[in-house]
């Protein structure tokens, strides 16, 4: 069981109208929720049109053939997670930039655009990193292509992934 520690945001306004924020922490609940949500995601699988071959062999054999084709694709080097690292880095960088811009605007409203930009950039980086890590983007294009061709060679009529 995850327990989250929370602290209150203490904000005071001095007699000149300046805002001072101290002792700020983000609850761990958000992070734990993202991790738990990731485990509930399923991986997309090929969808087979029920042609004559599919009807002849049945659903159980079709599922076994899908698994065999997926195994062959991995052995051939067309891994499902191909390119995932680059996508995570790209999403993190984009989210960092967006967070910095939004934070600077928010910070400018309260008189501290630099602090707002730094907080926004950090928040964006965390959001982009974990969002990409746990987003189910499905198998790589090389893996999909390999599996679909393998299934066609076995006599199936794959219609795509779902």
What does this structure look like?
With 162 residues, the protein is mostly helical. It has one domain (45-161). It is built from 5 helices and 4 strands, in the order ββαβααααβ. Strands 1-2 form a two-stranded antiparallel ribbon. A two-stranded antiparallel sheet has the order 3-4. β1 and β2 form a beta hairpin. α2 (52-75) packs across α5. The longest helix has 27 residues, at 84-110. The protein is rod-shaped.
What is the secondary structure topology, with strand pairs?
Blueprint: E1 10-13, E2 19-22, H1 29-39, E3 46-49, H2 52-75, H3 84-110, H4 113-134, H5 141-153, E4 157-161
Antiparallel strand pairs: 1-2, 3-4
Uncertain regions: pLDDT < 50 for 5+ in a row? 1-9, 22-29
Q: Quick one: overall form?
A: rod-shaped
SS class: mainly alpha
Euclidean distance between termini CA atoms: 33 Å
How many structural units, i.e. domains? 1
| Main sheet specs | 2 strands, antiparallel
Query: What is the count of helical runs?
Result: 5
Strand line-up of the largest beta sheet: 1-2
How many strand elements? 4
Q: Helix amount, in percent?
A: 55-70%
What is the string of helix and strand elements? Answer: EEHEHHHHE
Mean pLDDT: 74
Over the alpha carbons, how many angstroms does the gyration radius reach?
Answer: 24 Å
Percentage of residues in strands: 5-15%
